[in-house]
User: Fold this.
Amino acid sequence: MKKIEAIIKPHVLDEVKAALQQLGVTGMTAYEVKGFGRQKGHTEVYRGSEYTVDFVPKTKIELVVDDDIAPKVEQAIIDAARTGKIGDGKVFTSTIESAVRIRTGERGPEAL
Amino acid sequence: MQAIDTGSTAWMLVSAALVLFMTPGLALFYAGMVRSKNALSTTMHSLFAMGPVSIIWAVVGYTLAFGHDFGGIVGGLQAIGLGGVLGSVTGSGTAAIPTSVYVMYQGMFAIITVGLITGAIAERMKFKAYVVFATAWVILVYSPLAHWVWGGGWLMKLGALDFAGGTVVHIASASAALATAICLGRRKGYGTEELRPHNIPMSVLGAGILWFGWFGFNAGSALASGHLAGSAFMATHLSAAAGLLAWNLTEVLTGRKPTVLGAASGAVAGLVGITPAAGFVTPLAAIFIGLTCGVLCYFALRIKNRFGFDDALDVVGVHGIGGTTGALLTGIFASVAVNAAGANGLLFGGGPALLGKQAIGVVATIAFSFTMSFVILKLLDATMGLRVDPETEAMGLDVSEHSETAYEL
Assistant:
């Protein structure tokens, strides 16, 4: 099993979700997050005072999938989330040791 | 009972309610500009004033302001506890209204003046200390000042003009605000952290309520329904509009974007500026006053950080600068053609005399309000302490001072 985490632009979340559903992915978790990378923040001005906002709002998605579809999931996220501009985000894949569905006690890929 | 004018009475009842409504409007205006952890504390500063200030006004405030003149300084105690008010009449002819209406109308001004000060104490003052300060301030500062300007006191006798409270309300609250900013010190994180507004739409709603209520504040200050109320209403609206426009234009012309908080602040600056002048100036003069205040207040805020005082929500920059500008411009633009009870300013053949009186009014108000506020604050600091401890301040005053949070997120 693989865990795939991706930091993406908030406005592409729906497209990413639709692409993953087409692949047969049955669940995912999404967070609203803030962070900084190569994309610079922006300046806000209130009553003439400038404030530099370094943390940019992003969406983080997280899902665990069976090994065989992990590369397709990764590619689907990349395809759906790419705008070609700085700040598109990153995808991280890691190995998961175990998974349990709490309701039934199923283990491993059955639990996904 | 003496006869009253029903039209004027109806308008003054409405005006009193309009002025009261400004205070919760101010609560929203200010609360939107603080961080979310202090949204309730900031709201409460204005809201709470409606309680004790109303009671103080009924017990002693009104009579100290509008009782029989005592040496030009303060009113006598004839109307303590509002004794003798019921059944009596204030004004004459078409301006005759029940004194009860006059008492309530004036009392609403005392409430919002206290509320205005609180922009400078945001995010760090102990609530208890604020309550004691507000109580002392209404009795020792606001009531005598209202007497000086409107109650037959020395500034009124001198002939200084203040239609609706440029000195009594705006300059007085700004001077007190400066004293509180100095005595409290800067907020934790001032200059290093981002002390950003958390809810601009809330501030915009508040500014809208202020604009709406200001019609009662200024047009109501005619103390009657009629031509003067109409011209004050018009001057008020035009100055607010000009202030909004001027602030946004100044932003754009200095290479920035037109901001929403700027539009709201500009409108308030225009409203502040026209307050002393509303019943004495022509529509075009009102537009000029609004434009001037919009530009001057904008630049006042741009340079405020150089002074190092943390006037958190810019009471000095908007109400001090706007109020002073309006009071002085009244000395230039006032015209007896607009209001026969006024005087001619510099531009209308009155010479510099009125401008001089206006300047005396401004300086006297600043000196009195600042000094008294400073003394009250120093006494409170020595006895009960003014400021919450650093941990409480970091956590936010909503939880520590009120056991509530504004938002569940």
